[in-house]
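Try it yourself: sequence plus NDP, in.
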Amino acid sequence: MEQYKGRIAILGSGNIGLSLAKGLVKSGYVQAGQICLTRRNASKLKTFEQQGFVVGSDNAAAVAAADIVVLAVLPQQLNLLLNEINPSVDAKKHLIISVASGVSCKDIRSKLNTEVQVVRAMPNTAIAIGQSMTCMATDNAATVHLEEVTRMFETVGSVVKINEDLMTSATALCACGIAFFLRAIRAASQGGVEIGFHADEALKMAVQTAKGAADLLLQMQSHPEQEIDKVTSPKGCTIAGLNEMEHNGFSSSLIKGIKLSAVKAGDLYTKE
Ligand SMILES: NC(=O)C1=CN([C@@H]2O[C@H](COP(=O)(O)OP(=O)(O)OC[C@H]3O[C@@H](n4cnc5c(N)ncnc54)[C@H](OP(=O)(O)O)[C@@H]3O)[C@@H](O)[C@H]2O)C=CC1
Ligand SMILES: O=C(O)[C@@H]1CCC=N1
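Structure, out:
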């Protein structure tokens, strides 16, 4: 893979900003020294500085030194940040990537005095280990820039390009979604403890079983129900457990949670 030659500013180096930074370096897309990480409390970035990242609190300086600018603050923090960097953004030089939930490309441009190109990306925290599901959308980025952003996120997982009006749905299904599956694994391990395993072995068993389920679907390209049919022996214990879960609203609760998250994701910026 060809290494990216430019410089990236990640403004808002919290959970997702740092996960992205780690993933991009781990994948070899860039070296740590090509990434500038900012947050207001930059003293919390000391370990990243020791790993070779450029760190600081001066967003305008970070933008001036970069060609790709990643906006990774909370939606409620974004307007202040955009006001701060506005004088430093140059449409001819910069490409903006925003991972903020519920903020449109148009919203971002409306706060910057320029027709700068904006791409929205919605990764999840598995980006730190190159396993993100990242959804991407833009309303004005040139093909060449969209291709570069695609290449960037493909080094740290899978990428799907979607219409911008589906970005909040993508937030719920993929970005929040990783938490939903993690909770399911945790619940399975708690069940495992009740039926006789120590917590550490129950967790290991639940994790590997979940990984096997996901890999089956990825590698066989099959539908979950096809794989479930292979597990459920007639009058067996799997269908008994599965039906008990459904009587208690397993699928329904996941669907309802995803729907609520999608509504909330759309409201985070506008109802701050
Ligand atoms: N967490 C996730 O899994 C995902 C999050 N997102 C989106 O990413 C964004 C960030 O979320 P998340 O990482 O969870 O939030 P965090 O609170 O962990 O990170 C936000 C960071 O922004 C910093 N920050 C706030 N204001 C400024 C500023 N003016 N200049 C520079 N840094 C600033 C904060 O540090 P300090 O207080 O020191 O400034 C903080 O470290 C949100 O918009 C969210 O919707 C998208 C996909 C997944
Ligand atoms: O919980 C949140 O609001 C953010 C957006 C997607 C994942 N975390």
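One thing you can check immediately is this: The chain has a mean pLDDT of 97.
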